[in-house]
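Suppose you are handed only these lines of text.
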Amino acid sequence: MAKDTKAGIRDSFGSKFGFIAATAGSAVGLGNIWRFPYITGENGGGAFLLIYLLFVVVIGLPVMISELAIGRSTQRNPFGAFRVLKPRSKWFLVGIMGIAAAFMINAFYSVVAGWTLEYLVKSIANQFQGKTPAEISALFDGFQQNNWRPLFWTVLFIVISAGVVLSGVEKGIEKYTKILMPLLLIIILVLCIRSLTLPGSFEGVRFLFHPDFSKIGPSAILIALGQAFFSLSIGMGTLITYGSYMKRSDNLGSSAASVVFSDTLIAVLAGIAIFPAVFSFGISPDSGPNLVFLTLPNIFAQMGGGYFFSLLFFFLLAIAALTSTISILEVVVAYFSEELKMSRKKATLLASAGIAVLGILCSLSLYKMPQISIGKNSLFSLLEYTSSTILLPLGGFFIVLFVAWLFGGTKLKAELSSEGKYRVRYLGVYRFIIRFLAPLAIAAVFLNGLGILKF
Ligand code: PHE
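From them, the structure of the protein bound to phenylalanine can be written out as follows.
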């Protein structure tokens, strides 16, 4: 495994491309292909997309740069990083918050990742060809009504993630993502073409790209912010951990920009693949978390080579989910092993067992046992909302404030320029954003979205 000369003790990614691939592997996942379409569908389409894109560029990218800078300069996990930078302060709580978010996300995420495994098997068994949209939606319901299948796949997925994390950083992550993510991009492009050529597809294009701001309220704006954080894997320290594995000589800013670009491209393309088909097949855009699983099989059923494409697609989606969950799991494992002095093996097993219990409850709470809920919300949506819409933006808020006011200007410049190796032309704008714009914007969106303040 490559060693970073300055870092000494830690594993690091073998190359700049390796780092980008692994970080993009963390960012690209169910967030882009499952969550982005379903919440865009629930929040009215075009206007939501526009707000989301704005947040990605103006807030997401600066938060990502800040997290990577913290990670690379301290060579620690999120919890330890704050302790090194500000000993005897309360800042380590931000790290703890990230670890809590990591637990929650991993639980509900593994449930949906389990669905992709079921759909991979359905693809292999050729269950979509020749089916009507009604039959395809019955397929999903039948799966959810089964006592064991959804739970089995969730647990299997968690076991696979644990296996990859146990095998180590570079070997486990870098090797696969470099080849498989570009392949996923190609399949999504093929799906876009098929979807756009379906009868009545234009309605979907309109839905996604024609902004109608009357459909947007304060809570939708907060959900868009949370989705930007969720999709970019920021706000909980994943990228502090990944930054700690990044080489000192890599250009931090340009690497972050490449990751943000790839992640956003895939989300938008997933939208273009899904919404035309949604309207063409008469599916409701606000169907919720099952939207993608109702829509895509119809496209596969209606395309040449659909059998082959569906197989490859669900395989790659499962891999994309895997490269994301291992990055989430890594946060918890790094914390357990570095701060609580556990072996990596013990840390991984312990974390995965906890996630499996929570994941099973989450899965049951969606369809089988809706009584597992708090108020009107299932445990699944509760964890989803709390982690992505509350904890991630809150984490991002503290991370930018920390880097802006406590990290130290000279140190920040040295980190971003790799000790003067690169010119940091964006430094002025970036500083302005992390000092003022991002914290104020996050706070405003947050308080407004939760109804605490009205703007
Ligand atoms: N960004 C990942 C996705 O879009 C999910 C994730 C969230 C990963 C937070 C790490 C941290 O699928």
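What can we learn from it? The CA atoms of residues 111 and 363 lie 6 Å apart. The chain has one domain: 2-450.
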